[in-house]
Protein 1
Amino acid sequence: YAKQQGQGQSVPFARDMHDGAIARLQLETDLQRAIAHTIHPTPPESQPFQVYYQPIVSLATGNIVGFEALVRWHHPTRGLVSPGEFIPLAEETGQIGAIDRWVMTEACRQLGWWQQRYPAAADLTVSVNVSGVNFGQVGTIERIEQTLRSSGICGRYLKLEITESVILKNTGSALALLDRIKALGINLSIDDFGTGYSSLARLHELPINTLKIDRSFVSRMRGLDESCEIVQTTIALAHTLGLDAIAEGVETAEQVELLRTLDCDYAQGYFFSKPLESEAALNLILAERQLFNKG
Ligand code: C2E
Ligand code: MG
Ligand code: MG
Ligand code: MG
């Protein structure tokens, strides 16, 4: 990161590497401390991690159908750290398993609470990201079952988002696990679809429900151009396989219009709402579930 700091002045390479390694080690240590706090419950206000909720909207009705749970880390000195910074590190160090477990438990608890108290939340889903690194660990199914029980939500209101690489790397055992997850009524989505290398043959074999079209394709759409055709083809592929399509990273009214024309089922992005703290998400649920004018 030395390059970003100066106006062209260069830092000796070795020192640069050294500083980077120290910063990384520091972050890893801080992350370990944060994870320890989730294991020994602390009061909510001093929780190191927090789940933000970004609405997912039906393009047919304009209603919120659910939320994606996105983790945030309140670092003691650096403030809010985004997952883009610490998730890759946590994946390398093996800390991701503990983080994902905490996020799933918290997101399910939150949805259970909303569903029990607010009729408007009765049919909402929550989508949780699951890193491929620990996918298929022993006890995964039992833990998910326990999470559903303690939160009081039905499996069909939980969605797990996995990436294409998970399926490519893990073969037989991953498929067996996906089948067991599916048997609990839980929905499976392929996240960032189009950025990996899944073969169509494999896709067809998977017990999945949803393709999430990566933001990179959606944000490049300018009218009926090539990116738009890629999105259109992906939506058609999803429908051919009996799956729903969700467009990620929708930021403009023009994109919403195009996606509706292309028969995309759901959308998510800053145009509708950024990821919100739970109180703000609840306000959205209770106030105005229609996030765009269907025109
Ligand atoms: P993702 O699962 O693809 O999540 C969507 C990301 O796009 C989120 O970034 C979200 O804030 C951002 N986003 C949504 N709409 C827009 C938009 O209109 N424009 C732009 N520019 N961005 C938008 P976030 O929260 O920083 O998360 C980044 C990634 O970190 C996620 O990508 C996911 O891969 C990972 N992640 C987040 N939470 C977790 C978690 O609990 N566990 C694991 N394993 N990974 C997580
Ligand atoms: Mg996701
Ligand atoms: Mg995604
Ligand atoms: Mg993405």
Note: Residues 63 and 290 are 4 Å apart (CA to CA).
Protein 2
Amino acid sequence: MTNDRWPAGFLWGSATAAAQIEGAAHEDGKEDSIWDAFARVPNAIAGGDTPETAVDHYHRMPQDVALMRDLGLQSYRFSTSWARVKPGDRAVNRAGLDFYSRLVDELLGAGILPWLTLYHWDLPQALEERGGWTNRDTAYRFRDYALAVHDALGDRVTHWTTFNEPLCSSLIGYAGGEHAPGRTEARAGLAALHHQHLAHGLAVRALREASGGARGPAGSPLRLGITLNLTTAVPNDPADPVDLDAARRIDGLWNRMFLEPLLLGAYPDDVLEDVREHRFEEFVHDGDLEVIAQPIDFLGVNHYHDDNVSGHPLPADAPAGLQPTDRPKASPFPGSEFVTFPSRGRPTTAMGWEVNPDGLRDLLVRLSREYPSLPPLYITENGSAYDDVVDDDGRIRDIEREAYLREHVAAVQEAISQGADVRGYFVWSLLDNFEWAWGYAKRFGIVHVDYESQRRTVKDSGAAYARLIAAARTTESDRSAPAPV
Ligand code: GBH
């Protein structure tokens, strides 16, 4: 892959999420999440697909862990399902927690570090019926759920992530409507955004206390963090003030509305001004920002693409962006609904996302320069969807996904050489899976899943990733490897 050395202890892994792989949507006491309910809304999900069976990981977990071991993964990033652990947000469901307990044991037995995410978009539907993330009380319910998972797994799981991509589960779910719960109200999206931040802070505080207080030799052994999806907003014409302002607005909503409360303890003034008509400040109570801005041990970065942003309408002949279904949606950008995303004509993945590995390098370097209080970074997701072909010999020669992977891993290494403190990389995704509003139509796996037989086949990209990990580990600097984070 490259002859340069990787920092000692750099962690290689792969990621999944509960609703995307587990299936068993109504087994052993699990109740509906908002994605189970959303799948029943006509035309919400491409092909009428549902997460009911997904890739049946709930029943195939030991084989899937064996696959991870065969690939040489050092860590596995998975999420727990709130609706399985506390169905309807009532009492703890032992059977649901037992599944995760078995998973953790299986991982540890295979020498794989469990990297647990508490919320990857699957709110219990019962809580949605009480307002979901627009209801401040949901933040406190999240803290209780986090403590229940910690009670069961805190003796074996060290690495905890509160939220995966709160941008998506707030603005895309409540303002844009492409994701569950499919609401299309700008103010609801902003309420969800703040309440998820609050939930993060409450959970971090509760988990630290439950595990012995602040980190330190005698204190908590936990490593706590959050994962954001960070996307660079590139002005279409950097000499045009209208495009520059559009890029500022989108950078604010995609990135700074999340980074700044967490790292600086304040929402960015310019974005507060952009969303003024929605009275965002009413959601922010005294003391909330101190709760939100507690120190974290790592920041997870999910990155897929950057985007070209303009403040002008698209030309009439511009190709329409890919949409999972033709169900009407709204803008996920409160106060900046007019912004457009003109194509730069670069090659795209099957999601229509332009491929630009330099964008990942530049993002990581920018974060390191602009936020002095930035904790160590982990790439908690990066990957690509392509329309795979199973050849007659059964092989999946997914050369584009392999190239995407190599180029983005190289971009991470360049960022490190330019000073970014990146400690690990998780490819999205281990398995083809339920790609949210796209259903099973888009495949991100480095392992192919035949959705009829549930058979798993390592793709060429998966074999390449296994070789890459093995090679990277032999080029680690000879200093003894520190523990991750
Ligand atoms: C991630 O989503 C998820 O964590 C994962 O579950 C999923 O399977 C994977 O990526 C692949 O999709 O603000 O409306 O202009 C994040 C990918 C990147 C999609 C940012 C939405 C912004 C759209 N997201 N993008 S918008």
Note: Residues 3-477 form a domain with the TIM Barrel fold (CATH 3.20.20.80).
Protein 3
Amino acid sequence: THQWRGIIEEYRDRLPVTDTTPVVTLREGGTPLVPAQVLSERTGCEVHLKVEGANPTGSFKDRGMTMAITRAKEEGAQAVICASTGNTSASAAAYAVRAGMVCAVLVPQGKIALGKMGQALVHGAKILQVDGNFDDCLTLARGLSENYPVALVNSVNPVRIEGQKTAAFEIVDMLGDAPDIHVLPVGNAGNITAYWKGYGEYAADGLSTHRPRMWGFQASGSAPLVRGEVVKDPSTIATAIRIGNPASWDFAIAARDESGGFIDEVTDREILRAYRLLAAQEGVFVEPASAASVAGLLKAAEQGKVDPGQRIVCTVTGNGLKDPDWAVAGAPQPVTVPVDAAAAAERLGLA
Ligand code: F0G
């Protein structure tokens, strides 16, 4: 009887909806905040993981999408469109089904994880693979939404940010106050913008005593905010954050500077190391882009930037099942045994 109702019902008074707004939800949000034992030991801090892969379509995008599709429905839209590195398209496709809308998605050709493509397909989205990168897809999607009857549900749509800010509310509600530091991966920079807004609203209303420092991490091959200039041909194995010209650039810089935080980069090697550590030592399977937050925390700790005793939350943004190639790659092939207990026991090192 006490199922989580989804972010719009749980935080209705803090979101742009009215009593007559037709809420489109898959009961997103309410995700686990998991104490990270190994990361806490390594940093001397109290580290928690906000496991956003536990959302209905497997990423934090559902928080923004319930708002974007709800408002599109309220405004009478019959079709929605988004550019995506994969997760936004999976989420838009699912929520469009709930709303009875057509969903069009533009993805960079050959650069989206198979699980995400499968989601968009099975939910019946109209998919175009664009011969370009995410930034090209977003330009195209914006142009189409301006000239044709189709609503844009990328995070340049401000109601997406409204929905995503609820993750910060949940963290403060759980911990009783804001953390000292919040760490997250940065691609198009919508999420860092949303968290900063959420923390700000709670602090302004006296629901927390302070706001955290915001630490954002981009992949080295796709780090325009670190370089201070657009990256024309972004590259990284973390395809979700393979973005060279973030739409929420100025908001991300504001979150960094107002919070006294920083935005740095992590290499693909560091991302994969954190990806394996999370799975093998914390029991949390995330997609590579999500591991950029943890890779960044470990890098900062190695650089002596992490004072012990602090409370730190790392958002891990997407589920590992979306992109399992990296889990399988380089791992030993399981051995085959006959239906024989002695043989199995021997292979397992039990005998
Ligand atoms: N982590 C994952 C798993 C993502 O899918 C994204 C963005 C990010 C982090 C970065 O968040 O863009 O708000 O800074 N994915 C978008 C998409 C671009 O199309 O699914 P951001």
Note: The longest strand covers residues 102-108.
Protein 4
Amino acid sequence: QAKAAGRGRMVRFDADLRSGAAQRLRLDADLRRALTHPGELFCVYQPVFRVGDGQLSSVEALVRWRHPVDGVLPPAVFVPIAEAAGTIAQLFAQVLEQSLAEQRGWYNRTGRWIPVAVNLSPRQLDASTADLVLAALAGTGTPPDMLTLELTETGLAEPSTVDAALGPLRRAGVRIAVDDFGTGYSSMARVADHGWDVVKIDRTFVTGIHRDTARSSLADAMVKMAHALGMETVAEGVDNAADLQVLSRLGCEYAQGYLLSHPVDADGILELADVEPRESVELASGSGAGR
Ligand code: C2E
Ligand code: MG
Ligand code: MG
Ligand code: MG
């Protein structure tokens, strides 16, 4: 590591620089290069299961970056950089194209469309977004309702701007989910105004609910409000069977989390799609509802 022993201050200085502005600048430059080098950015897919019968219901595409020096980086490291640097729309386009291509591959192999959700940064939403998405769907021949776009409400522009940008997609049948619900400035009133399709309950309100009545009351309220608005609910961060039981009791229809499956590669989804129906929540024991 850095310099030599006995020069601790220098070492600390370097470390601070590397983890701060210099690191961001370097990754920004590297990301611009990666966006033109196919293969460095890739997707993994986290399955979402139906709580009632444990069946695979859809998948969420999650981007990863195989950095030539730093190894595989999680989105928390580079998505904020892409948002700040204005490369986020390019990143989205690549994630969308890759995941629609994999989805087409699953369809070709199984005869079944597996709905795919792609994260869309609110910061990139503009008048060109709809054209880009519609062109990508046309390119793979994907039924538009087999795609969901997940948006967090944090950092969203004016609701009217958002609705204008998403209008052509919604009319085509693309589904919209509010991601990380409960963590941002999102209110149910605003979600109601948008008339979106899915509420993803953030894991803050999910993990540990079986031993936290305050939290389970909040989750209960979120599920009820979503249903009152005609929206479906997906619980994020389900990492133990007891929490899943509570969600089942609350009537939450879908669940995603490490208990059920970590994100996997495209072949992993193909395996899941081919296997027998999974154990239902009702049958789930303390050892979990899945592998
Ligand atoms: P998200 O959309 O809320 O995605 C769920 C995150 O929670 C994923 O982390 C997933 O691996 C993780 N997760 C799933 N199950 C569990 C669990 O049981 N416990 C815990 N502790 N975590 C769980 P990941 O892949 O690191 O993604 C983090 C965030 O990065 C995502 O949150 C999303 O906001 C963003 N992101 C990922 N891919 C993209 C992308 O292509 N574009 C944009 N704009 N953002 C993305
Ligand atoms: Mg998401
Ligand atoms: Mg989420
Ligand atoms: Mg979340």
Note: The pocket of magnesium ion (ligand 4) is lined by residues 180, 202-203, 236 (CB under 6 Å).
